[in-house]
Amino acid sequence: MFSLKNIVRKNIWNLKPYSSARDEFKGRADVFLDANENPFGTLNRYPDPHQKEIKQKLSTIKKVATNQIFVGNGSDEVIDLAFRIFCEPGKDKVLTFSPTYGMYDVSAGINNIELIKQPLINDFQINLNQLQPYLDFEDVKIIFICTPNNPTGNNLNTDDVEYILENFNGIVIVDEAYIDFSSQASFIKNINKYNNLIVSQTFSKAWGLAGVRTGVAYASEEIINLYNRVKPPYNVSTLNQKAVLNSLDNLEEVTKNIETILLERTKLKEALSELPIVKKIYPTDANFLLVEVDNANKAYQYLIDEKVIVRNRNTQVDNCIRITVGTPEENKRLIKTLQKVK
Predict the structure, then answer these.
(1) N or C: which end of the chain has fewer CB within 10 A?
(2) 264 and 245, same structural domain?
C-alpha cells in the first residue's frame, strides 16, 4: 500500500524549510527594511516566493486547489526536485520508457540515481508484461511517463498509465508538456484519486513562453508541501511571473495560436507525405512530427546547410528527424528545402 512517508527521504521529511522575509511578513506595508534589498530600482524587491497570483489564476483555469499547485523554474525543476525528495543517491532507482525526454536521464545522473529504461513497443506504447516485475521493486521510487511522448509525439494508453498508478507503490510523474496539442484529457483530473500522482506541465510549449522557463506540478497537498519545502526560496523571478500572468490573462490569444499550430500540423503532415525521401510519419498528439526518411543524417545536414534546423533523432529512432510545427512560412520553407534532398 502506498505511503508517502515511506518513500520520502528521511532528511527531506524532517527538513525545516528556509523562511524568507516574505514568509515571515505577508501583509501590506509602506516601508520594507526586512530583506536586505537595495532600496533603489524597479526590480530591487524579491519576487513572491509562492507565486500566489499565478496559482490563483491556474486554480480557476485548471479547477485545482491552489495548495495542489507548485510553480517551478521550468519543468526541469519539477523533475530535479522529485529526485531530491524521493531518491537516496547511490541507492534508489527510477524508471522511464524509451525513447523519451532526455532530461530524466540527465537529472538521474546529476543526482546519482540509477535509471532503468523500459523500451516502448507497438507504436511506442508501454509493455505492461515487461514492466510488471519493476512495480514491486522497493528501490524503484519514481516512474516517469511522458504523454504525449517526446520524441515520438503519441499519447500513451490511459488505461496503462492508470494501471501503473494503481499497482506501483512509488511516485508516478506524468509529464504533460504537450498536452494542450492533444485531444486526450489531462491527468490533472486524477490527482485527488491517486495520491502517488504528480502531473507536470509547462508554459514553454502551447503558452509560447519557452524563454520564461516556468513549469508547474499538480499533485496532492502533501506532495506540494514537500516541493515547497525543498525548492529555493525565490525560484521564479519577478519578470518571469509577470510574463506568465500576462499570458494567463490572454487565453483567447493562446487558444488561437494552438488552433493555428494544429492546422499547420495537418498541412505539414500532408506536404511531408508527398516527399520521396519520407518513408513514414508517425502519429502525433504534440506540436511536432517524428519523420522517418531515407537517411536522417544526410537530410539533417542538408537542412543545416540551408539554415533550417530540425532535430536529428536517428540515435533514438532509426533514420528519424523530429520536426517542430512552425509558422506557415517556416513550414513552407522546410518543405521546399526537403524537396531538394537527393
Answers:
(1) N
(2) no
Can you name the residues that pair with 322 across neighbouring β-strands?
290, 311
Please give the residue range of the domain that contains residue 26: 4-249
Provide the number of structural domains found in the chain: 2
- Among 249, 281, 303, residue at a domain's last position: 249
| Cβ-based neighbours of 28, under 8 Å, separated by 6 or more | none
Cell numbers representing residue 94 in the block: 527510477
Please report which residue ranges of the chain form alpha helices under DSSP H: 4-7, 10-13, 21-24, 52-62, 75-86, 103-110, 128-131, 158-167, 221-230, 238-248, 251-273, 296-305, 328-338
Query: Minimal CA–CA distance to 165: which of 147, 183, 177, 149?
Result: 147
Its sign, for the CA torsion 166, 179, 145, 175, is negative
Q: What is the pLDDT along the chain (342 residues), one digit of tens a residue?
A: 788 999 999 999 999 999 999 888 888 899 999 999 999 999 999 999 999 999 999 999 999 999 999 999 999 999 999 999 999 999 999 999 999 999 999 999 999 999 999 999 989 999 999 999 999 999 999 999 999 999 999 999 999 999 999 999 999 999 999 999 999 999 999 999 999 999 999 999 999 999 999 999 999 999 999 999 999 999 999 999 999 999 999 999 999 999 999 999 999 999 999 999 999 999 999 999 999 999 999 999 999 999 999 999 999 999 999 999 999 999 999 999 999 997
Angle formed at CA 82 by CA 179 and CA 230, multiple of 5 degrees:
120
Helix (H) or strand (E) segment spanning residue 292: strand 288-293
Output the domain CATH number for residue 132. 3.40.640.10
CA-CA distance, 8 to 86, in Å (whole number)? 5
For 105, the 3-state DSSP assignment is helix
- Whole-angstrom Cα distance, residue 253 to residue 179? 17
**250: three-class secondary structure by DSSP:** coil
Q: Are residues 305 and 294 in the same domain?
A: yes
Q: How far is CA 42 from CA 37, 38, 70, 262, in A?
A: 12, 10, 26, 40
